[in-house]
Amino acid sequence: MSGCIDHREEEWILPKELLTDSEEEWTTYQERFFKPRKSQHKSGFSIDTDTLTMLRNVIGDTKAKTTLTAYIENILLEHLKEHQALLNKTAAQYKRNQTLNL
């Protein structure tokens, strides 16, 4: 179904070429951050309750079909990919092996 937006609750599909800039931007955001993630190796971590509430509100208020865990993982992985070169360059000053290879 690539190329179309599926508004399930409204039961209509809009071709991508008819989207406004904000709708296209929203579609891109959904594709990047609301995609499901599968992991066999999970670990717990602490997060500020206000930040957690904000993330839960984003998922709930946008009716995103994703889990909180997948949303957080996607945000973190996008951040690491975006800053990979800088992080590797800085880490190389202190060690011999590349830190990230995404």
From TrEMBL:
It holds the Pfam family DUF3408. This is DUF3408 domain-containing protein.
